[in-house]
Specification:
Helix 1 packs across helix 2. The chain has 154 residues and is of the alpha+beta class. 29% of the residues lie in helices and 36% in strands. A 4-stranded mixed sheet has the order 4-5-6-7, covered by helices on one side. It has a domain of 106 residues: K homology (KH) domain (GMP Synthetase, Chain A, domain 3, 2-Layer Sandwich), CATH 3.30.300.
């Protein structure tokens, strides 16, 4: 993957990819807002494609993301909370599995920041809150003591 950024004028830049191009107009939308939008859109596309591959449909999808950033520069993301609101023709367990599949496996942008950012999520499915403020166990931004775990002998 390659992206080329070209300065246009003032604080406008053109981003060119292999497939298209678009204008980044700072400070109307900051690069960090574009970054967060890309993270959220990555997961949102999973929320359409995963159900489709299972013969299911998601409608009215809205994914809200809220970030808390560190105070000193470079002001990295400390926490990210995502709220998934959608309707579907699946049960709540399946709907929650779609979100987890996106977060844990498929969304490369979330998986790029997960070792430095504590990530949590909520899910509103068919008008009902089915998960609230759940934390990604594998997100490196959090420390969860799972106690002593016995493993199988090698």
């Amino acid at each position: 993957m390659k992206v080329t950024i070209t300065h246009q004028d003032a604080m406008k830049f053109e981003a060119k990819t292999a497939k298209s191009s678009f204008i980044i107009d700072c400070p109307t939308i900051s690069p960090v807002e574009y970054f967060l939008s890309g993270i959220i859109t990555c997961s949102a596309t999973d929320m359409i494609l995963i159900p489709k591959n299972q013969g299911k449909t998601v409608t009215d999808l809205v994914v809200d993301g809220e970030v808390v950033r560190a105070e000193p520069h470079p002001a990295k993301f400390e926490t990210l909370h995502l709220t998934y609101t959608f309707n579907s023709d699946a049960d709540d367990t399946t709907a929650a599995r779609w979100v987890m599949a996106s977060l844990e496996t498929y969304c490369s942008t979330i998986n790029t920041i997960r070792n430095t950012t504590a990530i949590s999520y909520s899910i509103v499915h068919n008008g009902t809150m089915i998960r609230e403020n759940e934390k990604m166990i594998s997100g490196g931004g959090s420390s969860i003591d799972l106690g002593e775990i016995e493993s199988c002998p090698s």
